[in-house]
Structures are given as structure tokens and as C-alpha cells.
Prior knowledge:
Helix 3 packs antiparallel against helix 4, helix 3 (42-67) packs across helix 7 (242-276) and helix 7 (242-276) crosses helix 9 (296-304). Helix content is 52%, strand content 6%. The protein is mainly alpha-helical. It has a two-stranded antiparallel sheet. Strands 3-4 form a two-stranded antiparallel sheet.
Amino acid sequence: MMLIPTHHFRAIERKPEYLQPEKCIPPPHPGPTGTMWFIRDGCGIACAIVTWFLVLYAEFVVLFVMLIPSGDYVYSIINGIVFNLLAFLALASHCRAMLTDPGAVPKGNATKEFIESLQLKPGQVVYKCPKCCSIKPDRAHHCSVCKRCIRKMDHHCPWVNNCVGENNQKYFVLFTMYIALISLHALIMVGFHFLHCFEEDWTNILQAYGSDRKEGAEAQVSLHDTRQPLTVSPTECSSFSPPTTVILLILLCFEALLFLIFTSVMFGTQVHSICTDETGIEQLKKEERRWAKKTKWMNMKAVFGHPFSLGWASPFATPDQGKADPYQYVV
């Protein structure tokens, strides 16, 4: 199948008959300002639920298998606070990335009245999306899942059940960063648990079994004699049985390692995309650069806010775009 260059579609969109404004009717009852953004996609909702389940599973194993049974209270408190804080920020970033409008273009604005309001001059053209019947500003692309054109759309992520675009890219970057951090933290704690706890636990069990067998061989016990059940040293590091503990920790290791690799790669690609001011779709389509080139630091501030502050790391701080360049409908 022959691939058609992107500029060919742009050439088609420039034709006056392609706009057909008389066929575009704006929504009769636009939603009120501040309405929560949520994509009703079955796959995306399922992925979002799985994401929360995996984070909560890691929370359960870290707290109830490794930290609470530990005799080192300082170690448990410090690691518990750090892990819970990172997990909270990760889930908060996930919610903000999922429930924030990524930069949707008003649907159905390709009307005759709107086109006339642009006051086009001879030689100027506008682009229309035939799927959502909207006039697309520069660097906007249509998402088939969200069924909207999204400004600076990078990609649609099912794990956050939303597009990653102009308004929520910061939250998506924070989500990948915090998931990578809690995955790394969990792996480190599992390593310490195996090194400092399992050797003692299994040694105590073997000694208990050996002593029990030795006593049974050397002494004759009456049928009416009561035997105490086998106990393990109270210094054991888990309230679960050793086999159950091993299974829980192995599953946590697999989950943490998988998500550490995945989110680290996503975090790196997102930061690179921000620094180069080129979205994933623009890189994939190799679109011609029609926007002004800025420094990497300016591009970072355009996404995380002006000026640099601790709010960059907070999913609760809405980035101040500062003097961001407005998107142009006219080319």
C-alpha cells in the first residue's frame, strides 16, 4: 500500500469545498464551564482500574509484608512515609492526567459564522477536521478514541484513559516519574528484605525442625504427653508464612521491575519531546516544523509553568503558561 505524504492531506484541506461550513452544526447545548473531563472508553477504564489495583497491591505488600512486621521501627517509619508519599503523588498525578481536558478543540466550530469571524485575507487558509467538524489550530490532531481534535496531542494513553496533550502533559510526566520512583523503592526494599530477613527466618525454621526431630529420636514420649506446636523466632520479618511471603515478594518484584522499565522509558521520551518541542505524532509523521524554535528551558517552562518552583513536582499545581504563544487557526 502506498503511503500518502502528510502535506497531501493538508493540500486537500485547503480547498474551499472541503470546509463545507453549511454541514457543520455546533453542539446545541454546550457543557458548562468547569465540567469534568472523562473519556468513556471501556479499554481505558479497565487499564486505569488495573493501574490503581497494582499500586494498591504494592502498597499492601510493602506495608503488611515488609515494614509493619519489621523490628526496626525507624527503618519502617522512614520507608513507609517515603513510599506512601510517592504512591499518593503517583495516584494524584494519574487522576489529574485522566480528568483534565488535554486541550480539546471546540467541537463543531467549523461553521460559516466562525470562519467569517477569522477575517481571512487572500491567500490564508484554515484546516478543518472532517471527523469532529472543527477548525483545527496549528499542531492539533484528531484522536479516534476521544473523538476530538487535541492541541499538541502527543499520543492517547490507555493507562490514563486520556490523550496526552497541551493541558495535561505535566501530569502525565509526573505520573510516569512517581511510578518509576515507587517501583525502584519497592525493588530496593525487597532486596533488603531478602538479605536481612529471609536468612534468619529460614535458619530459625530449619533449627526448629531439626531440634524437634532430635528430641523425638532421643526421648520416648508418652501418648498422653502434650507437644507444643512448632514456632518460629519472634524476630521473623513477615506475619505471613515463608512460602506466601516469597510469592508476594516475587510478584511485587516482577511488577516493580516491569513498571520501572516502562515508565522510565516513557518519562525519558516525554522529557525529550518537551525539550525538542515536538510531539510524538509530529515525530512519527515527520511533519514540517512551522513553529518558532525555543530553548529547552523555555519549552520546559511552557509545560510545567512559569517560573520554576516546587509546583513543578506537584500534581495539584496547575501550570501557569505565562506568555505562551497562542495557537493560530489561520496559516
